[in-house]
Structures are given as structure tokens and as C-alpha cells.
Amino acid sequence: MFKILKYSFYDLTRSRWMYIYGAFYLLLTASLLWLGGGLSKAIISLMNIILVLVPLIATMFGVMYYYNSREFTELLLAQPIRRIHIFFGQYLGVACSLAISLLLGVGLPFVLYGVFNSPEIWNFSVLLLVGLFLSLIFSAIAFFIALRNENRIKGFGLAILVWLFFAVIYDGLFLLALSQFNDYPLESFAIGASLFNPIDLSRILILLKLDISALMGYTGAVIQNFMGTLLGMACSLGVLLLWVVLPAWGIRWVAVRKDF
Amino acid sequence: MRTTIIILLSLLASLAAPAATITVCPACECSTIGQAIASAADGDEILIKSGLYREGNILVDKKLKLRGEGWPVIDGENGTEVITVTAGGVTIEGLVVRNVGTSYLEDRAGIRMRRVRDFTIRNNRLENTFFGIYLEHCSDGLVADNIIEGQAEEEMSSGNAVHLWYCKRIMVENNQVRGHRDGIYFEFVDDSHIRYNVSEDNLRYGLHFMFSNDDDYFQNIFRRNGAGVAVMFSRNINMWENRFEYNWGRASYGLLLKEIYDAEIRNNVFLENTIGIYVEGSTRIQYKHNEFNRNGWAIKMSGGCLDNEVNANNFLYNTFDLSLNSAPNNNSFDGNYWTDYNGYDLGRDGIGDVPYRPVKLFNYVVNQTPEAMVLLRSLFIGLLNFSEKVSPSLTPADVADNAPLMQKLNFETLN
Hints:
Chain A is mainly α. Chain A has one domain (about 1-255). Chain A has helices at about 1-15, 15-35, 40-70, 70-75, 85-115, 120-150, 150-180, 185-195, 200-210, 220-225, 230-255. In chain A, helix 3 (about 40-70) packs antiparallel against helix 5 (about 85-115) and helix 5 runs antiparallel to helix 11 (about 230-255). Chain B folds into 2 domains: about 20-225, Pectate Lyase C-like (3 Solenoid), CATH 2.160.20; about 230-360 and about 395-415, no CATH class. Chain B is about 10% helix and about 40% strand. In chain B, the strands form 2 sheets. Chain B has a 13-stranded parallel sheet with strand order 3-6-9-12-15-17-20-23-26-28-31-34-36, with no helix packed on it. In chain B, strand 1, helix 2 and strand 2 (about 45-50) form a beta-alpha-beta unit. The longest helix of chain B has 14 residues, at about 1-15. The termini of chain B are far apart. The chains are: A mainly alpha, B mainly beta. The interface of A and B includes residues 47, 186, 207 and 219 of A.
């Protein structure tokens, strides 16, 4: 598996896209830090970007990589290697290179700016951690979708739809449900519903660090009581981890049964 | 010429009674403060040397100066009130007053002034007193440089650090108060000033105004209080150069204005409060040169606020800049700097060409469904706010800054 991982990783490092992706973050973060002024401002702006862009890029990249390396995969399948190793190797290769681009692109400017000597270090670590998780989650979902669909157009369409669902539609439905059932106590529902969407969950984890004042209303206090504690933090990180494991398990399930 | 001066001086000296100094110390001839007061005459000074004095309630009914040297401790042993003053012209300084018991029947205080004038309470330390300094029906006094620390746990069973009731022309200056119900409490107090105080970690309000007119407070710091500062049912209050910080909680705010008329709020800093200023039914108030930094809501206005002028302030990184729930609006919000403003300035005059609407749609949504707060800063809400901005339908269209500034304003504030 590690050999495959290594191959996909090297393959990706040779492709231009990873560098462009990394350089984009580098440029963005640097300009936010030095032109926008201030760590906390930069973290808030980056949060908005990371929550939208990381899932999108991870989804697109996962699907694209799977379809592009289709021939290589067929070659590998003819070899005496376990299927799970092939697909997990490829998935982890994509996920790792995405994660490293993000880590370097966002991390480097912050380190140079001196984040280690500021109280913002925790906010920043949460942001980075969430970014890494989102890369892992959405590339796994993308791989799963691509594996299920031989038709590229369908695969791409579905992947985009999934991203759109988690990024926008889910929140819309969420808000609709909240306003419809306004008369009932909805705090537990609000927390529960946000667990089912990795983007929402990530956002709330960062908000708990940043927009603490606004969240101090009644709902905020409930969320704070749940997720602000160590147990809640561990719980939400566990759910994020589950979000990685579930599609990964899906990849395994499809990969083992699929007739190539 | 010189002889006349000498004669005049000697005349003056003979007119003024010779002010005696009575020294009190545990080993002295006069070992209790009560004894010293009994033997003193008007105008005398009582010098209290360091030591522990347990005398229950000490009644000062003469014009005396009580001065502590080396921080003498007057212990109330969690019983009655410690010092009660009923004579004018008294000065109390350099004392440590400790342990006044909680009572649900009477407002016991560390130092109480009852119906007196021209007094000074300076440079004392009050520790674990139920009420710290309690002034009732007093006028023309000074309360300065005191450190008042309580250990309040519940609102019900705790008192205020500095409590003024029916007073006039009092100066409350440079005190540090913490751990009480209210830091500084004003009820029916007129023409008084509150300056350079630090009021923090109180259960309810850092400063509490009720039915008090023509007062002002400058350069105070109110930090981490249960609900911040409350100014209610008062007229002509000036609030300048204060800092309101870190008042977090479900019902917390930096400053609460309720039924206030003709006030000036200038050069204050509101930093990281759940609500910067919460305004209810207040009219003709000028907000100028204030900085609202990283609050949940910078200003939250409810119904019945008329003719307010919010001009030339900095609104920096607040989650919500303004919440306003009454439809007709004749308040002015022009000429502020808003970090969320992203218009342009073609004329290069420093004023944005597009009006800024500080009330967002999400604000409206959150007012209706508070639970929707979990969607804060999501892409969907961003889209929603954007579409509302393009064509306002739910948010009041006339609440706008018609001359938003492109650059942050520079003005003096307390650091």
C-alpha cells in the first residue's frame, strides 16, 4: 500500500496542479496577513475560504485523479496486489498531497508572521486541523463517487452536487427546518444537525474560538456547553474522523466488489 | 507691613482651635478607636497605628479625621456594620476595613455616611464587606483611591461596592472595586462624577445608574462584569473615554441604556462584549468617536429610540454591527467606519459612494429564530445576505450609513 501511496504521491508532485494549489494558498494567506492586517482578521477571512474551497478542490481533485489514472489502475489490478491497497494507496496519495499543499500554503506565511508568539495560535491550529480533515473527507467522498460511476460526466456531476449539498443546500434546508419548527426548543436539534455535515461542524469548531461573543446568546451557550468543553471537542473531532472513515469504508466496499 | 502680617497670622492662629492628635494603638494608653472618638473634640485627628481592632460598630459623630498608619485592620468579625459617620467634615483614610456580615434585613456597610456633607474617604482598603462604602443623603464628598474587594457569590446575598443613595455633588475617583453585586451604584444621585475607576468581576453591573441626572463618568474601566454597565431612567449623563470589556454571557452587554434622554457617549471603547450597547427607549443620544471592536452585536436598538445620532464611530470586526427592530427609523447612522463595508470611493474624498446597510438579513433571521445562530458565517447565509443587500425586502431600507468612511477614524481613547 505504501508503495502505491508513494507512486501516486510522486505522480501528483510531478503534476502542476498541486503546486498551483499550494501557491494559491501561499499567496492568499500572505496577502491577507500582510495587506489585510492582523492575525485574527486573516484567520476569519481564511476560514470562509477554507470552508468553501478545500471541500470543492478536494472533491474535484479526487474525481479527476481517479479518472485520469484509470489506465494505471487497470495495470495495477492485473498485478498480484490486493485491491484495497491499490485504492487506498491512491486515495491517501491524493489526500496527503492536498493536505501538504494546504499545510505549507497556509502554514508557512503564518509561521513567518510569527503565529507561535501570539495568542492566536490555538485559533490557527483549529483552522488548520479542520482544513486537513476537510481535505481527507472530501477526497474520500470523491473517490467513492468515482469508483461507483464509470461514466465520467455523471461522476463529476454527482461529486459537484455532493459538494453543493454540503456547502449550501444543507444549510438552506437546516434554516428552513429551524424556522418552520420555531415554536419548539431546537437547541439539541441544531447541534445534532450540524454533526451530520462536516462543513458545518468544522465551521462551528472555528466559530467557537473566534465569534465567541455572538455565540453567547442562549443557543450559543448551549453549543458552548456542548462543544466548548474538552469532551465536546473530542466528540466533534471523533465525528469528523467518522466522516473520514465512512467514505473510506465505502471505497473498500465498492472496490472489493467491483467488476473492472 | 511685616508686623501687620504677623499680627494677622497670630490672630488667625488664636481663632482656630488647636487641633489635637490622638494616637490609637493596641499598646497605647488609648487602645480603642471608640475611646479615642469619645475623648476627641471637633476638628481633632485620630491617628490609628497598625494593629487589629475589633470594636463592632464604630460611630463617628464628631468632625474628625481618622487616619491609619501602617494599614491598621478594623475587623467587623462578620457581624454588624463597621464605621458609621453621622457628622459632617469627616475624613477617613489609610484604614483596612474587613469582614462585614451578610444580612437580609439591613444594608450593612464597611463605611457608611449618613446625612453628612464635606467628607473624604480616601485610600482605604475594604475586604469582604457586604456593602463597601454606603452614602445616604450626602453631598459634596470625595471617595477616592479605595480598593474594595468582595467575595460575592450570588446576587441575592451580596451588596454593592460603592453605593450612593440620594446624594449630590459627589466625586468617585480612582477606586478599584471588584467582586460585589454592583461595582458602583447610583440611585437618585445628581451632579456627581465618576472618574478613573476600575470596576471588574462584579456579579451584576460594573456601574449602575437609576433615576440620576446630570452626572458624568470619564475614563473608567468596566471589565468582566455580569452584565456590564446599566444606565436607566436618567437624564443628561455624559459617558466619555471609558472602556467596556469582556462582558460575556447570555444576557450581557457592555452598556445598557434604558429610558435615557440627552446623553453623550464619546470616545469609549467597547471590546469583546456579547452586545456592545443595548438601547431601549432612549432618545436624543449622541454616539461619537466610539470604537466597537469584536463584539457580538455592536449596537442593539429596540423600539422607541428616536433622534439618536450615531456618527463618526469605528465598527471593527463585530459579528453584527447593528440590530434594530423598529420599522420607522429617524436615527442617523452616517459617517462611520465599518470593516464590513466594501463599497468604492471614485471621488477620492474618503467617503464611500454606496450607502452601507448595517442591518443584515441574517440579523433578522436570528431575531426570529435564535437557533439559526449555528449557521453564522456559512456560505448559505453569505448568499442570503448578499441577495438581501442587492434588494432589501425584510431589512429596513432606510437604516443606512449614507456617508460611510473608507478609512478608520483616529481619535483618543483610554488604553
